[in-house]
Amino acid sequence: MNxxxxxxxxxxIAGATSASGAAVARALTSAGASVVxxxxxPDALEALRTSVPGVTTHTCDLADPGAVSALADEVRAAxxxxxxxxxxxxxxxxxxxxxxxxxxxxxxxxxxxxxLRNTTRAFHDDLVASPAGRLAIVSSTAVASPTAGAADYAAxxxxxxxxxxxxxxxxxxxxxxxxxxxxxxxxxxxxxxRLGDEVVRLWAAAPADVNGVRIPLVPSGAGTPEPRMKx
Length: 231
What we know:
Elements: E1 10-14, H1 19-30, E2 34-39, H2 42-51, E3 56-59, H3 65-79, E4 84-87, H4 103-129, E5 134-140, H5 151-174, E6 179-185, H6 192-201, H7 207-210, E7 214-216
Parallel strand pairs: 1-2, 1-4, 2-3, 4-5, 5-6, 6-7
């Protein structure tokens, strides 16, 4: 029986049907957490249940505030409040120059930010009330080094960074047992399992050591990572 710091905690993964979502779900369940996986595609959620036995799944349009509020009520009624929220809704769009940044690409990327805003608001009180509340998102090195060809992407990620650091400031003030952290990558391909391990480690760390911190995640042999940035 696993008795680590995340054992027995209930963690919701928003955008759980990606490769990174499956890796995080696997790491959390292996560490003894109860995982609630949320996505938009029932077939992909069914595949996740098969590959990671024990997860509970819910279908929800996370860009719809009303749907997210209903999801929060449903999760609480079925299993209780959550101790963690891992937001993995995202994707890359871009190319060209500043004038080449399309409205369609921006709409796609801005939707990802809305899902973060909706889920953090809906589950905020759960994380504050938990004895070990944790919020984690995946951001990008593009925030610190934006390019013209990825301006929309960098702007959306910067908005997510700022939102999570604002959540962290609220935790620092009102919920010192909680923490909101930002995992920073240049690209997630090949780093999914390490992301899962990093998420699990958030519960082993003292809240003040990870709250508002940008945690770099780089491939082995990739050189010096971006330093951890504390608030």
